[in-house]
Write a structure and sequence with these properties.
Jelly Rolls, 17 strands, mainly beta
């Protein structure tokens, strides 16, 4: 039988437990600043606004096989955008730059890109996501403006042809979020005279296809990553053995004054001309990282 003093003590402890909450803090993650390139669109550019890697195939990045991952925040503009092209960039900046392949009848030959595409072509006011290749535009999925996308393009060549897969809203990888196109194996077997990997404007239509929005988080790999590795690399760069082995260019936080390669491979692009995008910055603080979890203790 409990003594009166002991019973009083137990009641006091229970009363305290019933009236208190336990606080378990979540691990605090420091805020960080992310940066990007804020392109103003064609209407705000007088000549061109683009950067490029010259002769990428001579530096270990052939047109096929490769994987590209990037982040974009598209704003609305009528007509064309350019995110990037692998193709000819001879400095003429006109249709001859595009239709360089005289051997094959004056066609565009080897090039590809992944961008928004205006419905109805030039002047269209709404856009779909597209793969541009073989002088055609293959689309799937409407562009929603003023929101972030993580995107990826995988391109590779095998006995069945030249393959292109554009994942326009990762982590979604279902058929409704992919643009794909396979061309014959004979397509694009001759490099253009001045090959380049160009970002921000079309080298054959300069000043008229300038991106309107923010571009950041650029990852380029000199291999066809598996879908699983692509997903992991998009979430955490250099987190897979395949990604680490084939990284070719990396700059997660580019600025107008620093688009240099952070992968250690030394593949540094250069700006074309004097016009530059503005600097985009954003402070990220996580999801209420300092808020405690409250556990109410109930004693019956």
């Amino acid at each position: 039988m409990l003594k009166k003093n002991n019973l009083t003590s137990i009641r006091l402890v229970l009363a305290i437990l019933l009236s208190m909450s336990f606080f378990i803090p979540i691990k605090t993650v420091s805020a960080q600043t992310i940066t990007g390139l804020d392109f103003p669109g064609s209407a705000a550019v007088s000549t061109t606004m683009r950067f490029k890697f010259t002769n990428p195939q001579n530096n270990g990045l052939p047109a096929y096989d490769a994987t590209y991952i990037w982040r974009v925040y598209p704003r609305h503009q009528n007509s064309y955008y350019t995110t990037f092209f692998w193709g000819n960039d001879d400095g003429q900046g006109n249709l001859n730059t595009f239709l360089w392949d005289r051997v094959n009848g004056g066609g565009a030959g080897l090039y590809y890109g992944a961008h928004p595409y205006p419905r109805g072509g030039a002047g269209g006011s709404t856009h779909d996501w597209e793969i541009a290749v073989n002088q055609n535009d293959y689309v799937n999925g409407q562009v929603v403006y003023d929101r972030w996308y993580t995107q990826a393009l995988r391109v590779w060549s095998d006995q069945n042809g030249k393959h292109h897969e554009f994942y326009w809203d990762l982590p979604n990888i279902d058929a409704g979020h992919i643009v794909s196109k396979t061309l014959p194996a004979s397509h694009g077997n001759t490099n253009p005279p001045n090959p380049a990997l160009t970002w921000g404007d079309a080298p054959w239509n300069i000043g008229k296809e300038v991106y309107n929005g923010i571009l950041r988080g650029i990852q380029v790999y000199s291999s066809k990553l598996s879908v699983a590795d692509m997903m992991n690399e998009a979430q955490n760069p250099l987190s897979t053995s395949a990604g680490t082995a084939s990284i070719w260019y990396l700059n997660m936080n580019p600025t107008p004054t620093d688009i240099s390669d952070k992968s250690g491979k030394g593949h540094n692009p250069v700006w074309v001309g004097n016009e530059r995008p503005t600097l985009y910055t954003e402070n990220t603080a996580g999801n209420s990282l300092n808020a405690p979890i409250v556990l109410d203790v109930i004693v019956k």
